[in-house]
């Protein structure tokens, strides 16, 4: 029983660490999408254009949009996975692909 409690505690701690900042949450999302090289090597910058344009919706979601400077390329469509919406829920951050629009 102690081993299970220890294992669950370690997994919860890792989850919290990987979602503790917007950049770590974004890197975790890209890594889990299957692009580990892009997750580790790409720089992350604020997407000022989308943040200004969609200001009301983003504020309502308690979110911010970030852009990867060296984004991964999706194999099926050859599109660049550049922009991501990062929401803050409590003290954790969660990223999702935002698209180009």
Task: Please tell me about this protein's structure.
There is one protein chain. The radius of gyration is 15 Å and the shape is globular. It has one domain. A 4-stranded antiparallel β-sheet has the order 1-2-3-4. It has helices spanning 2-18, 22-32, 36-41, 48-53, 55-61, and strands at 44-46, 63-68, 83-89, 92-97. By secondary structure, it is an alpha+beta fold. The mean pLDDT is 92. It contains 5 helices and 4 strands; from the N terminus they run H-H-H-E-H-H-E-E-E.
List the helices and strands and how they pair.
Blueprint (H helix, E strand, L loop, with lengths): L1 H17 L3 H11 L3 H6 L2 E3 L1 H6 L1 H7 L1 E6 L14 E7 L2 E6 L4
Antiparallel strand pairs: 1-2, 2-3, 3-4
């Amino acid at each position: 029983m102690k081993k299970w409690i220890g294992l669950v505690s370690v997994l919860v701690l890792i989850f919290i660490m990987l979602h503790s900042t917007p950049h770590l949450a974004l890197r975790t999302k890209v890594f889990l999408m299957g692009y580990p090289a892009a997750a580790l090597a790409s720089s992350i910058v604020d997407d000022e254009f989308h943040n200004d344009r969609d200001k009301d919706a983003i504020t309502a979601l308690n979110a911010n949009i970030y852009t990867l400077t060296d984004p991964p390329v999706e194999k099926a469509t050859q599109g660049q996975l550049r922009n991501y919406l990062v929401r803050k829920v409590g003290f954790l951050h969660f990223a999702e692909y935002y698209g180009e629009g």
